[in-house]
Amino acid sequence: MGKITDALKKAAEERVGHIEKLNRVRATRLFVAQRTMESQIDPRVVAFFDPKAAISEQYKILRTNILALNKGNPPRTLVVTSSTQGEGKTITCLNLAVAMVHSNRKTRVLLIDADMRRGRTAEYLGVKAEVGLSEVLKGEAELEQALYHVEAIENLTVLSSGAVPDHPVELVDSTAMRDLLKTAATQFDMVIIDTPPIISVTDAGIVGSIADGVLMVVRAGKTQRGLVNRAEELLYQSHAKVLGRVLTNIEYHVPEYIYRYL
Predict the structure, then answer these.
(1) 157 within 8 A of 33, measured Cβ to Cβ
(2) Domain boundaries defined on the chain
(3) What is the pTM of this model?
């Protein structure tokens, strides 16, 4: 498995090691995003509200290491998943996306909420999206109708999950999804895709197999090593390339705020 950094891997293994183990688009038209105001952005998007905070610096380190992968040819389509619910994958997606667009490269990022069962990306960003990914994949809306740009976050475009469809797996495992990602990769510098937990459903494995790489989010103090291993086995079986792990729920001291959590 590829590593984001040796330090990140070491930290992840040390934290998880303390936990009890288990036994075993279509067309190639240019994308045009609608605009919305930033007043309802969730405060957990720390990289936006406090880019100099210690936690924001960690997202910048993650950004730097992702962009340094593969000898200067970094992944253009990046799936973020976890083994179970509640590990912080959506917050990780949001903060990583903001860190990406704040880079000196002025990276153009498309953040796709592919968790069509319980997606919350639009909610966290205060986006009132009438249509999203599910409508686009079903052919009920054009992609241009579903793209939004938060006014205060330059170069960040958002595609929400849309209404909950009857058969989410069939939508992500479709030619329409493949075409969407292929086209997005030509018009954005980075496409970050928030997917459901891999152990619960197969969506992350399906999307991961057609993306350039996958990041696994692991919550310290909660996620059991056996679940992490099982999740990565499922991703490997889907022929997804796991780039590394992002450890969340780390408590640390920050003078201005006493304590803050990732």
Answers:
(1) yes
(2) 6-261
(3) 0.81
Whether 260 contacts 252, CB under 8 Å: yes
Which tokens hold the place of 52? 């100099």
Q: What distance lies between CA 260 and its chain's CA centroid?
A: 21
Dig out the tokens for 177 from the structure: 């999804």
Asked if 122 and 150 touch (Cβ cutoff 8 Å), the reply is no
Going 165 to 167 to 169 to 173, the CA torsion angle's sign is negative
Separation between Cα atoms, residue 38 and residue 148, nearest integer Å: 12
Number of H helices, E strands in the chain: 11, 10
* Contact in structure between 74 and 191 (CB atoms under 8 Å): no
Q: How far is CA 82 from the centre of its chain?
A: 10
- Of the candidate CATH numbers 3.30.1390.10, 3.10.180.10, 3.40.640.10, 3.40.50.300, the domain formed by 6-261 belongs to 3.40.50.300
Rounded CA-CA distance 39/146 in Å is: 20
**For residue range 77-108, what is the model confidence (pLDDT) as tens digits?**
999 999 999 999 999 999 999 999 998 777 89
- Measured between alpha carbons, how far is 220 from 259 in angstroms, rounded to an integer? 16
- Helical (H) or strand (E) element with 53: none
Let me know the angle formed at the C-alpha of 135 by 150 and 240, rounded to the nearest 5 degrees. Answer: 80
